Amino acid sequence: MENTKVHIMQHPLIKHKISFLRDKNTGTKIFNELVSEIAMLICFEATRNLSLESVEIETPLAVTKAEVISGKKMAIIPILRAGLGMVDGIRMLVPNAKVGHIGLYRDEKTLQPVKYYCKMPQDIDQRDVFLLDPMLATGGSAAAAIQYIKDSSAKSIKLMCIIAAPEGIKKITDKYPDVEIFCGAVDSCLNEFGYIVPGLGDAGDRIFGTN
Ligand code: PRP
Ligand code: URA
């Protein structure tokens, strides 16, 4: 079995932007802009190994060989709600990616994910899936989403998150060693309510202004 690869982002721009995301005084507008920008920067790292093919291009001066991304194709799948905040930033880089949706929420008492909506691109079996959720806490939501996507026959899955707890990373790496994780930061622990500490609070509430 392939080993899971966990990539913790080291880029100064990502670290800088995550600091402002954590700040409780950052309001909804800036928070959304930061989530989108960080998602774009993480996507830049997560797409580093896309395969290329050679094509012929005519410039105003000459015919030349050039490289373009080959074959199919990406699908991006945000976990609702908070994953939606990452979609626009990634679509700026990969405008042709198909977008699926997985609706999950964590039961407040049990912390177990409850599924309420799923819509996948029809040809997901031919696509590399980028699963989006800013928060990887216990890992229950990401694991449920990965299982659903695997059952839909996606050929590869990469999980992109902004802040992860060690518990969530362990859960995904133990259960799905083939899934690569691209993560903006890894925090200390979970508190008694399953929130990441220091974290940034409830990502969905901060993105949609519902707290
Ligand atoms: C948050 C977050 C993840 C999940 C992480 O969603 O966006 O989906 O919790 O926790 P876990 O790793 O312990 O499963 P939430 O359930 O609060 O739903 P929301 O995005 O609709 O607010
Ligand atoms: N979901 C969030 O939005 N934040 C956390 O810290 C944990 C789960």
- Report the major sheet: 9 strands, mixed
End-to-end separation: 43 Å
Radius of gyration, taken over Cα atoms and rounded to an integer in Å: 18 Å
Shape: globular
Helix share of residues? 25-40%
CATH architecture descriptor? 3-Layer(aba) Sandwich
Strand content: 25-35%
**Would you tell me the structural class of the helices and strands?**
alpha/beta
Individual helix count: 6
- Following the backbone from N to C, one meets helices and strands in this order, namely EHHEEEHEEEEEHEHEEEH
Query: What is the strand tally?
Result: 13
As for the CATH topology, it is: Rossmann fold
List unreliable stretches of 5+ residues: none
Average of pLDDT: 95
**Ligands, deduplicated:** 1-O-pyrophosphono-5-O-phosphono-alpha-D-ribofuranose, uracil
Oligomerization state: single chain
Q: What's the number of domains?
A: 1
CATH class: Alpha Beta
Question: Explain this structure to me?
Answer:
The protein has 211 residues and is of the alpha/beta class. The chain has a single domain, classed as Rossmann fold, CATH 3.40.50. Helices cover 31% and strands 31% of the residues. The strands form three sheets. Strands 1, 4, 5, 6, 7, 8, 9, 10 and 11 form a nine-stranded mixed beta sheet that branches. Strands 2-3 form a two-stranded antiparallel ribbon. Helix 4 (140-151) links the parallel strand 9 and strand 10. Helix 2 packs across helix 3. The model has no long low-confidence stretch (mean pLDDT 95). It binds 1-O-pyrophosphono-5-O-phosphono-alpha-D-ribofuranose and uracil. Residues 82, 135, 137, 195-196, 199, 202-204 line the site of uracil. The site of 1-O-pyrophosphono-5-O-phosphono-alpha-D-ribofuranose has 23 residues, from strand 4, strand 6, strand 9, helix 4 and helix 6.
